[in-house]
Amino acid sequence: MTNELTPKFNPTEVEAGRYEKWLEADVFKPSGNPDAEPYSIVIPPPNVTGKLHLGHAWDTTLQDIIIRQKRMQGFDTLWLPGMDHAGIATQAKVAARLAEDGILPQDLGREKFLDKVWEWKDEYATTIKEQWGKMGISVDYSRERFTLDEGLSQAVRKVFVQLYNKGWIYRGEKLINWDPKAMTALSDIEVIHKEIDGAFYHITYQIEGSDEFVEIATTRPETFLGDTAVIVNEKDERYKHLVGKNVILPIINRVIPILTDDHADMEKGTGVVKITPAHDPNDFEVAMRHDLPMINMMNNDGTINENGGKYEGLDRFEARKQIVADLKELGQLVDIKPVRHEVGHSERTGVVVEPRLSTQWFVKMDELAKNAIANQTTEDAVEFYPPRFNDTFMQWMENVHDWVISRQLWWGHQIPAWYNEAGEMYVGEEAPEGEGWTQDEDVLDTWFSSALWPFSTMGWPDENSADFKRYFPTSTLVTGYDIIFFWVSRMIFQSLEFTGKSPFHNVLIHGLIRDEEGRKMSKSLGNGIDPMDVIEKYGADALRWFLSNGSAPGQDVRFSYDKMDAAWNFINKIWNVSRYILMNAEDVSADAVSSALTKVANKTAGNVTDRWILTRLNDTARRVTEQMDKFEFGVAGHILYNFIWDEFANWYLELTKEVMFGEDEAEKDITRAVLLHVLDQVLRLLHPIMPFFTEEIFEKLPNTSGSIVVAEYPKVRPEFNDDKASEGVAMLIELITAVRNIRAEVNTPLSKAVPMLIKSEHADFLNAVSPYISRFTNPSELTIAKDLAVPEQAMSAVITGAELYLPLAGLINIEEEIARLEKELAKWQKELDLVNKKLGNERFVANAKAEVVQKEKDKLADYQEKFDTVKARIAELKEN
């Protein structure tokens, strides 16, 4: 057989080579159809420091689902790939690799070191693209970008210069966060605050010319080397006599003044506060108010500098130990009290961050933030999914500080500022003319270039670029909530400033992937999961199914191998269904399928189950599309799963066997055509989520050509809707299920024929489908009528539209049957209470859609009928 599938789904075999075929066929490129609506995404660029992690796999999976569906729906789709140079992280990785050979970056010099970083970039970019291929992401590689591309670099220089000329970029000395390991400045959001064990060190400072001492408390005793004052509150009666006097710093014996300032809290500690302006943000503000000197007592690498006296050259934490020992020896260490407190750590290197006075470049954020806030009240507002993250964005923009953008690195966009010996500075997109100019050694924060990503990748600053005109603003961004501040906010305010538009219409926020215990994945816990290992075992389709169905937008998800097993089982189920259909319908032509579907729609051929499954397919396509449009991939997946596993595989496929094992060839042809059509549509609905195996099966269908990547996405076909068929088969399924449940309760296997009576107003319909009832319930006698005598000793069930009785004399206990029915009565009472409560809610009835209210009223009627029937049956049994 030409279209044979292997008996068991093997992801390795199915996915091997598939991605390369897609690339060769150019199916990922925009259609170029000028009449099609454009839909564009720029991939959140992974940095080139290593392999993809599960979080990035989540990003790319959700974006690929969106772009594949839109492509199939006929949009002119562009998904632009790229990567981020990740200044701090990449430079640190390359420096670590060189250190293994005993080489320091300084040994090579800037240019040769950068050559090594470019080699690293090429190596890891290749790895990332291979991993993208394994994930199956459908990007257009002809438009691939990198944040250090010349085009992007031109955009960075233009933005820097324009902001500088407006006065919104400036160079100044301020207190910033300093990473002593990477030896660079950090922005506030690159600092992660972690709880650690520390201590309050209580130290005494002697009053100059007196035997009196004041006591201060600090968690960083080494910083007293940079103290330039102590302060008390002017209302604090304890210290009024000391204001205007001086204290003597222990060990180094420097004299500093005692001042008053509201920053000193009388209720906190001793009420005396040491001021170290160059190493504490609050102290910096105090120093600015009192015009105090600012003494930096630390080198770039976290060692004590020349201002530290005998401690010069010591690491800051080693200096702390020695200073504490020396203070104790002097008798000026009063106490050490353990404390659990939050301390800033570098997001990139993990070391404790040092607040430090430094000359850096900054972006003034007041006007940029104001513009971004105002834009969220316009038609051009960025829509966040879930909406609550708009509040997160707004709160940050309303409280944002000036952004330190210079980094003391070699890898990155070198700041376009030049200096000469005369002390002049020149800022421009190109180097100044003439001799004697030296470019600023620092580079820009990686996020400065990443903030331009949506439009710089489209050809900006050339606003006549075809891609910029066609695909900007982009349609949707997918990213985790952890980088709303880092990246999303910056893209918004930079795009508004330089293009006058929001960078994207929608932002879909997902959460973090945690381990099975709910812990964040980390190297220290050893609980990280490599997505490539998961793909190796289960395949990319299974991983993508898990990632798309794991949670609702904005919520974290727990990785679970049990869920991966379930995903593989689901794919294998579809695989086996496809094998069955292909074995029975491989010769059905396209014309035969079209003709058969027309006949079924016109009710000139086919049976009620055919019309039922086509109605359910319509409903599934409609609901899945609605949920996908709302980015509710988990809900869409749940709808697909229920339709495919329950309705299509477990019911329709089984019901068709009544036809397939029968004698009517014309009816078989109709059923084969319907089976093929539904399978074809199922594959198309699934393809955005699980691209590999759906393509594998799709190309084996007898009437398909080309790639499923560009096949038309399913639409609702009104001619297939048949409410009567839908209700009828729903009743048939409920009846069969009820019989199976009763048999199980009394331990009567299906192989044993038993009599069955069905009382129903729909007796004509049930008699018409009696062959199905007989096949799946095995009655020795089957009686279906609108009215019939109810046997005294019988198991019973009430379903929608019918009452079912199985006379099983000798197999049932009347008391137990009454007890069972009373439980069922309680169930229907509970359902009635819930519906009555909802319908009794005036706000619900007034505000809900009419069809929603009617649905609840229909439920009420159905539940009431079942309740009344069960209640009457209980009464009958008790009377007998």
Automatic annotation (TrEMBL):
Single GO biological process annotation from the record: valyl-tRNA aminoacylation
Keyword terms of this UniProt record: Aminoacyl-tRNA synthetase, ATP-binding, Coiled coil, Cytoplasm, Ligase, Nucleotide-binding, Protein biosynthesis
Motif ('KMSKS' region): 520-524
EC number annotated for this UniProt entry: 6.1.1.9
Principal localisation: cytoplasm
Pfam hit, one: Val_tRNA-synt_C
Coiled coil: 811-880
UniProt-annotated binding residues for ATP: K523
Localization, UniProt: Cytoplasm
PROSITE patterns documented for this protein: AA_TRNA_LIGASE_I
InterPro entries: aa-tRNA-synth_I_CS, aa-tRNA-synth_Ia, Anticodon_Ia_Val, M/V/L/I-tRNA-synth_anticd-bd, Rossmann-like_a/b/a_fold, tRNA-bd_arm, tRNAsynth_Ia_anticodon-bd, Val-tRNA_synth_C_sf
Transmembrane segment boundaries: none
Entry similarity comment: Belongs to the class-I aminoacyl-tRNA synthetase family. ValS type 1 subfamily.
Protein name: Valine--tRNA ligase
Natural source organism: Lactococcus lactis subsp. lactis
Highest classification ranks of the organism: Bacteria, Bacillati, Bacillota, Bacilli, Lactobacillales
